[in-house]
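Reviewers of the previous submission asked for a worked example of the structure-prediction workflow described in the proposal, so we include one complete record here. The input consisted solely of the amino acid sequence. No template or homolog information was supplied to the procedure at any stage.
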Amino acid sequence: MLASETTKCAYRYRVVDVFTQHPLEGNPLAVFPDAAGLDDLTMQRIARELNLSETTFVVPSTRANCVIGVRIFTSTRELVFAGHPTIGTSFVVLEEGLISKHSNSFALDEKIGPVPIRIEPGERPLIWLTTPPMHFGKHFDRALCARALGLDPHSLLDIPPQLVSAGNPTVFIALQDKEAVDRAWLDLTGLATLKADTPQESFCVFVFTPVTEGAYARMFAPEHGIAEDAATGSSTGPLAAFMMRHKLVSGAAGSRFISEQGTKMGRRSILHVHIHGEQGADGIDVGGYVTPIIEATMTL
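From that input alone, the workflow returned the following structure tokens.
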């Protein structure tokens, strides 16, 4: 007797490069535009299989004011919010016709809550998200941060590193120049140095230096399975707030600037920032372009 064959299902997905107008730059993202039938464990296993910084799954929204739901997974865990997955998923659902291409604004249902999206039209749309509410946390010792990053303490600006979160807790460390940013490195050993007095809290580490255009940055998240992230939209709103607090960038209403990230790892990303209200009192938007590169099917 022949053994019965297990029924297999095919799931179509797309890979896009986010925060860039050039293929093979920016931050890659896999998006499954129809994740019906996939359970949490399978979503996590798919994200591990693809091994990108994040993979998203489009599901029905649980909130009346949101057009779709989005689940976001790194290779090791689910996130409540992330920037490049939000921007990239917005691009894909518009391209797939899941949302009218004439929509200039809508909201995505993520674990953190509704995330407002705004489309700035053009030859290629610039997609903006509104950063969720931010929380400023503890400060870190500058010398401790320097040691964790493999830097001399003089490589840091005289600004206390601080934990800031808009869903993903991140320690912001201001450095003297681009060369210091490029020299910095953080692995699990360095992270353990930083976490000596906060062992139970998971966080990312974001290093940057002010430049004429805004900021030049890198981000490390070894606890999330991401040695270095090419573009971190969820940390860019908090970066803007941190820089405004320390007068490293204009906090005037309507101000716009960019954060360049991923250049050291060969995936240059440009993240746009738009300040609403003085010092971002009416919100901080983070925006970027998206470049599609792959259409594929996964059979399970």
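The CA atoms of residues 206 and 219 lie 4 Å apart. We consider this example representative of the routine output the project will generate in years two and three.
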